[in-house]
């Protein structure tokens, strides 16, 4: 209609004239929309699309996109790496635009200070690559998948193979630039410690637009050791996993052994379960073997199972499923990949070891699926030394390990999404007696809209949002809502699971 096209025109006019704007009638709109979006379950043709996508090059362009959206009644979805499990950076049920930070990817390393400024649109792979280019004994402790963006990842916590030694990615942030709801750019000093606390674990999207992080680099030896030992059920995998729960969180902090449960398909179509014990050790094979002999002899690790490599090669080993020493590290720079799938994830945190017969119940359910995983990351070490309230990420000393459940499928149609999602919900229900409760906590970065969502047109009440808010943030939820009330009282930065404003 003429009214809507005049609204469109004034919106376009409002945006900085030089800004790259992709509207649905421009050719690159669809490819831009999908290429940096990870979970294709949430981007089906039915999913609501943005009015426009902007890819700012300058802070003033981000500011124009923010202020014009406010003026013209659009919400914004900020996208850094596009890996949100529920697609919250790409779709929304209210009229919205996407601010895609794909051009905000500068990484500036200060070797004297052992810090780096990294812009929010950079990927983990780009950060790791840039650090390795400057030093073979420095690193950054963040997630395993190289295409994850630092904007979403670090603001939700972020962990990978060095969490037991160095904590979360967000524990290693020393400063940040954030654009607030009025378009003002703040750093740690000008935003104040409350807001700086909130964006390290509480998710950036409720508070503003993170422009960049200042991260503290950490030290690694020139050579680290990796290994993967896989066992199927008939090879005693369940017993080993039971044992793993008692030792993994207590091991030397230089040693990270995660357990990865998956379905394996035999030649005749028969299914089995394989559990892989997948490890990074910040030291040599020679140091590792005696350590394993005393702390986890049941795994039977011998030197032939181990590979020594530089830390940067270990990011390939984990990020690309067993890449070897010879692979070029340039693959860390690929922002997109072709093997995207439909998936749904959930998470749990475990306080007490789970018994073998409970695991056997899980395996039975797994055998009903085709592609499903349970990834168990041990806590302890540095994670136990940081108090629950130090940053807004609360899941610390109380937990032995974290579980991520994932189900994937390759084709849509015939109710497949419904079938797989229902399967995962059933598994989650089965686990309820064996994991944390009151509240049953979850990890924001493995976002799960089943935990509750805000579908209100106006402001959702604090009490309603608490349903998922306390799962992600436990006792920190209240402080997060108070910070939100201070910095965005009108709740412009609102999404399906954002933090509601609370006034003191
Ligand atoms: P995306 O751009 O989708 O953003 C996620 C959320 O943060 C959205 O709500 C978005 O609006 C908001 N946001 C993004 N940029 C922002 C900014 N600049 N300012 C304010 N808000 C912003 N996690 C982990 O801890 N360890 C791991 O090893 C992995 N591995 C992994 C593998 C794969 C294949 C996937 C899909 C995901 C993971 N994750 C993970 C989870 C990952 O940490 C989580 O999805 C992050 O939120 C992704 O951040 P992106 O910037 O990529 O996502």
Task: Tell me about this structure.
- With 504 residues, this protein is of the alpha+beta class.
- It contains 15 helices and 18 strands.
- Strands 15-12-14-13-17-18-16 form a seven-stranded antiparallel beta sheet. It has a five-stranded antiparallel beta sheet with strand order 5-6-10-8-9.
- β8 (173-179) and β9 form a beta hairpin.
- The longest helix is centred in the last third of the chain and has 16 residues, at 416-431.
- The radius of gyration is 23 Å and the shape is globular.
- The model has no long low-confidence stretch (mean pLDDT 94).
- The chain binds dihydroflavine-adenine dinucleotide.
- Dihydroflavine-adenine dinucleotide binds at residues 38, 77-85, 88-89, 101, 120, 143-145, 148-149, 151-153, 155-156, 158-160, 203-205, 209-210, 445, 495.
Q: How are the SSEs ordered, and which strands pair?
A:
Layout: H1 2-14, E1 21-22, H2 29-35, E2 53-54, H3 59-72, E3 75-79, E4 96-100, E5 107-110, E6 115-119, H4 124-134, E7 138-139, H5 150-155, H6 163-166, E8 173-179, E9 185-186, H7 188-198, E10 209-216, E11 218-219, E12 224-232, H8 237-247, E13 255-265, E14 271-281, H9 285-295, E15 306-309, H10 311-319, E16 342-350, H11 356-366, E17 371-378, H12 382-385, E18 401-409, H13 416-431, H14 462-473, H15 476-487
Parallel strand pairs: 2-4, 3-4
Antiparallel strand pairs: 1-2, 5-6, 6-10, 7-11, 8-9, 8-10, 12-14, 12-15, 13-14, 13-17, 16-18, 17-18
